[in-house]
Design brief:
heterodimer, A: mainly alpha, B: mainly alpha, flat
Amino acid sequence: MSDPSTALAHQFDDIEQQHESASLGMWIFLATEIMFFGALFLGYSVYRSAYSPAYSEASRHLDVVLGGINTAVLLCSSLTMALAVHAAQLGGRRTVVMFLLATIILGSTFLGIKGLEYYHKYEEHLIPGAHFEFPGPNGPRAQIFFSFYFVMTAMHALHMVVGVGIMLVMILLTIRRRFSASYYFPIEMAGLYWHFVDIVWVFLFPLLYLVDRS
Amino acid sequence: MATHIVEKKTYYTVFAALMVFLAATIGIAYIHLGKLNVVAALAIAFVKAWLIILYFMHVRYSSRLLWIFVGAGFFWLAILFALSFADFLTRL
């Protein structure tokens, strides 16, 4: 399959058309993801404008240091992902595996830190539900903030887990010599997915962690 | 569509810019700007997303057709926000 003549599927005129078709298809999927997360962001925004003081107070309970580190970790993982695709374009197998591995490690680091944050919230009784405790008049509205926090970051984390799984598959396929300088598109499409999940976090971080820190 | 292979240098530059913007986001959050805080935070987030889309996702080097597909998703998101807030913000 690393032979260019077998990489071209019969329904396409040439490999470029096949490549563009893959990209268009992936972007259609990302459009559905934009709407999926968009709905969550909309709900968050409506309640933020309605319950501003409660959101400010609740947001301050989130750990900016851990959140900031996580953002940096994800940005690094996007870099390693882009470099993996770059290496694939040049036909290098070892480098591709190396960068994909780095991406997985960084993504897993993100998930680990997220888990730690969730654990802290559990200890502080800030998980919405029967054991939620938030002193002061803003209690019920703060619970709404934390509901959005957990649902949005959990959905994001789920996407990260899927992303890590996809990268593992890509590593396997690369090791099995399924790619070449003329056919590396699955890695690039996986990269598009990964970058998108990163972009979601780029918006999640300031909206959840930095509501009112001044 | 990257028959055009992006130089690694471009990726590193974009990455550096993203990290600078991250520092800016956090820094500005601690300065009291009132209503402008959220505007600044969102503006920086948009710039970061734009950089990732253009360079990491190769959109800068892609066809017009791809640009339309990219734009479509965000256009629909804009409709969602515009109409929802047109309702919500005009309620008495």
